[in-house]
Amino acid sequence: MNGIRGLKGVEPPAKTRTLLIGSTNRGKVAEYRLMLNGLDLRLVSPDELDPVPPEPAEDAATYAENAERKARAYAEATGIATVADDSGLEVDALGGAPGVRSRRYFGEEATAAERNQRLLALLEGVRDRTARFVCVVALAHPGAGARAPGSGATVELFEGMVRGEIARAPRPRDAGHGFGYDPIFIVAADGRTMAELTPDEKDGISHRGLAVAKLRARLSGEPR
Fold this sequence. Notes:
By secondary structure, this protein is of the alpha/beta class. It is built from five helices and eight strands. It has a single domain, classed as Maf protein (Alpha-Beta Complex). The strands form two sheets. Strands 3-2-5-6-7-8 form a six-stranded mixed β-sheet. A two-stranded antiparallel sheet has the order 1-4. Helix 4 crosses helix 5. The chain starts with a strand and ends with a helix.
């Protein structure tokens, strides 16, 4: 049976549900904790579980497939309802690239700063810098045979999208805000990059924020 590190021996209220945030990205986990704050949920991340479940692969052809695979794998491995997502940046001048391969487009070992610089290099001299961020969130409910592959977890999907354009250079608000391509994505009708927004501002308009708003509505309406 999975335990939760740091909370052993501390039982949550009987009606509190546990929801696993299926990500090892600390920035993403922090966003989920903020966006789902106030719900009667105990939110945990994979590294808080004992044992820590293996991280699922992200090698599918679509955001929806990757999100569903991750959520389903974590739910089946742990027996805990899980939310996971996949997202990407789609640049019109690059035919929609980097898209579903956004994190791996410039190599598995490239840092976020390196990915940003290489993308800007591809767009040097390009006038059309329109782009969009897309996110698909999956909510997996473990089946009766949880903690066994193929145990039949059921999955719901929620999508969000925001349009904008690619900046000429990275513009972070400060080192503590934004991650990934946020410093080079200018939000349409705002003029600031995603990394220049406060967390509350970002969550209100971002692709992930819009998808999680739909998830939050679903979770709020679930019977206990």
